[in-house]
Structures are given as C-alpha cells and as structure tokens.
C-alpha cells in the first residue's frame, strides 16, 4: 500500500501471470465481439489460457459454457478477470476468495482499493486497473 492505495505487483509477477497458461474466469464476459470483455477473453484463449465466461445473461461465449456467477463454476479457477463496474468488485473479490482463486485481475478503470487489499490479504495476487492486452505488448 502506498499512501492508503493499493499498489500493483512488480512487472515480473504480471509477466509470469500472463505467460503461464491458467484457467481464467472472465466475470462480465460478453458474447458481443465488439465488447472489450469478449476481445480480451479471446486474446487470453489465443495465448493458451482456458477461459470460462461468467455472465448471468449469456449461455455460451467463445465456444465455452457461460456460468451465472463465480461460485457456479464447477472447476478450479486460477485467475478471476473482472469486467464489472467498480461498485461490484467487493462482491466479486469475496467470490474469488471463496472459490480459492489465486489471482484477481481488475481491468482498466475497475478500481476498488479496499477489495484489492482484502483479496491480497487473503493470499491472492491482485492486479488492478490494467489490461492484459496492453500488458502482453509491454512485457512479453
């Protein structure tokens, strides 16, 4: 924490997160190819990650079954990638902790210092206000 704010992990940690294939639950994943959540989920798939879409209004996204919530996903999730407004982050962080995820990734503009710190205190690696597409270009 720096002046009461969450601080992201070092670049080496972010690089390792992106370079290692994981099971990633994309919360707020849209079936609309024009949406950022869809494009980033497709990018993660193309980079070898297993993507599990989470959105109560979708049934299938990118060829994968979509689940209404994180706690409904029947398999182990390594990383939770959040495309929800900041006011919903605390609940998503609680769910990420409850399902035993090891990484919580909050997309650009998705900011909740308290939830990020709570997730980190629970043992998760947290990346906040970052986009994997930008980080791939910057770090890999």
Structural write-up:
- By secondary structure, the protein is an alpha/beta fold.
- The protein has one domain: Rossmann fold (3-Layer(aba) Sandwich).
- Helices cover 34% and strands 18% of the residues.
- It has helices at 11-19, 36-46, 89-98, 113-121, 132-139, and strands at 23-27, 50-54, 60-61, 64-65, 79-82, 103-106, 125-127.
- It has a five-stranded parallel sheet with strand order 2-1-5-6-7, sandwiched between helices. It has a two-stranded antiparallel ribbon with strand order 3-4.
- α1 crosses α5 (132-139) and α3 runs parallel beside α4 (113-121).
- The chain is globular, with a radius of gyration of 14 Å.
Topology (elements, then pairings):
Elements: H1 11-19, E1 23-27, H2 36-46, E2 50-54, E3 60-61, E4 64-65, E5 79-82, H3 89-98, E6 103-106, H4 113-121, E7 125-127, H5 132-139
Helix pairs in contact: 1-5, 3-4
Overview features:
single chain; 140 residues; alpha/beta; Rossmann fold; 34% helix
List low-pLDDT spans.
none
- Please compute the radius of gyration using only Cα atoms: 14 Å
- What is the averaged pLDDT score? 96
Question: Widest sheet: strand order?
Answer: 2-1-5-6-7
Shape: globular
Helix content: 25-40%
The CATH homologous superfamily is named: NAD(P)-binding Rossmann-like Domain
Count of beta strands: 7
Determine and state the CATH class: Alpha Beta
- Major sheet attributes: 5 strands, parallel
Helix and strand sequence? HEHEEEEHEHEH
The number of helical elements comes to: 5
In terms of DSSP E residues, the strand content is: 15-25%
Distance between the termini: 26 Å
The CATH architecture can be given as 3-Layer(aba) Sandwich
CATH topology descriptor: Rossmann fold
- Structural category is alpha/beta
Any idea how many domains? Answer: 1
């Amino acid at each position: 924490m720096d002046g009461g704010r969450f601080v992201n992990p070092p670049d080496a940690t972010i690089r390792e997160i992106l370079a290692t294939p994981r099971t990633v639950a994309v919360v707020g994943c849209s079936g609309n190819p024009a949406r950022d959540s869809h494009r980033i989920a497709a990018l993660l798939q193309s980079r070898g990650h297993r993507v599990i879409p989470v959105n109560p209004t979708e049934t299938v996204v990118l060829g994968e079954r979509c689940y209404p919530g994180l706690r409904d996903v029947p398999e182990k999730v390594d990383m939770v990638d959040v495309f929800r407004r900041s006011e919903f982050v605390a609940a998503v962080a609680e769910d990420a902790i409850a399902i035993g995820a090891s990484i919580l990734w909050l997309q650009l503009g998705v900011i909740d210092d308290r939830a990020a710190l709570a997730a980190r205190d629970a043992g998760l690696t947290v990346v906040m206000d970052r986009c994997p597409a930008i980080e791939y270009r910057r770090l890999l």
